[in-house]
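Researcher: Let's try something more involved. This one mixes different molecule types, so please make sure each is placed in the same coordinate frame as the others.
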Amino acid sequence: MSPLLELRGVSKRFGGVHAVDKVSFSIAPGELVGLIGPNGAGKTTAFNLVSGVHPLSGGEVFFLGERISGSSPTRIARRGIARTFQNIRLFRSLTVFEHVLVAQTCHASSMLAQFSPFASRAELERRRQAMETLAAVGLAQRHDELAVHLPYGGQRRLEIARALATAPKLLLLDEPAAGLNDTETEELRVMLDALRLRGYTILLVEHDMQLVMRLCSRILVLNFGKLIASGTPAEVRADRDVVDAYLGVES
Amino acid sequence: MNIYYEGVLASMGINILLALSAYAILATDRLSLGNAGFMAIGAYLSSYLTVNLGWALFPALAAGALAAAAVGLLVGLPVLRLQGIYFVMGTLAFGEIVRTFFQNFEPTGGAYGMRGMFGASLAMIYAFVGGFLLLFLAYGRSRAGRASDAVRDDDEAARSIGINVVAVRLLSFAWGALIAGVAGALFAHYALYVESGNFNFLMSANAVLFVILGGVQTVWGAIIGAILFTLLPEGLRFLADWRMTAYGVILVTLMALRPEGILTRAMLKNLRRLYGRRP
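Model: All components are placed in one shared frame. Result:
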């Protein structure tokens, strides 16, 4: 099957630092791939390159066979790549429900409909879908609250709901388990597993190794901006370079 | 009506329009200090059309407003590329350029200013206030309005869900310019005389001040701000020479006590809960 996402020799330099250094990998439709690595390995930078937040210093990114590197974040999002943020970025004046509504940018509606204060039949349908999306992440009961009033775990799940509402073909999740307790992390695992079963393609950056090992069919390992390993959880765990990267190695 | 009260009410109406024009832009997290420039364009163009070419007031007013919006689009395109303080400086420079242009532009009287306009009434000013308020309320309930809220709260997150942040900011900027253009045309045809000095930096700064003091989160904040801070200096007249000092002290105190402004969205939500769900 042709890949959904493909990185070819992607690099990013900040001054003299090679944050991401000639990284190449591809993701097939329906895969749940983990991207791991020690702090500062370049995982979030790689996300920012795919989603268009930073311009590339070298290489190319392809999505559905078309080159997307060089496009704006808005264009890339509209093509079907949605993301969450490591440091939660919710809209402070919007309610939980409004977060999902505002993200339904995939739905083509006329310019006039965009400015209409009245709820058309199509709009009512979108609201129903928004409630479904909230139900999928367990936030339907709290739909009328301001998002900033949600507990931390709820805010993380709302970030995922907002990304889902764009009807993405690829979901980039940046450390969704960061700051969650064991129960919340387990809930998250069940939720991500359900998304995988529903056919979503997911690229997951995560520090919680146990979560990644249990969820992902394939794992990519970054260290100092370079891709040092790629394979099944068992293969990666046995990889000498990966062990060295995580435990440090005397040179 | 007493001519003094009518004058206060008229300048309050113009100030509300000015505050709405600043609010339209602040609502996308951009602060413009050049709205007096758009007001000048609306004022001078409509005045030239009514006085020199004999147009009726409404077509002239519409032409002035549309010209201000068109200039808003042209200026907004490059200026909106600037971030934070640089955007503020860019709009400030624009306002000053417009002011000095009209100071030297002979066809509209240059430094002598323009006279001969008439026809705007108090009722007309408040009809526009009401009309624009309704449009803002409708916009707030629409998808476009919600997208604009998202842009104000976090533009990077807004981009990540496919919102065209540049388009939202540009349209809001032009919309703010249009409202300022209407305010200018009404001001000129109510005050009967305009000069370039009317449209100075202080006027742009006041527009922003009304909104920040009243509350930037909702359109009601802009309106309350403009009403209170038009009336306050009038109410302080008994202090004579100390009037503006007291005004300043009140502004600083209010900013310190309520940095988010008098009205907030959470407050309106609570009020609605309190009064809306009664049997």
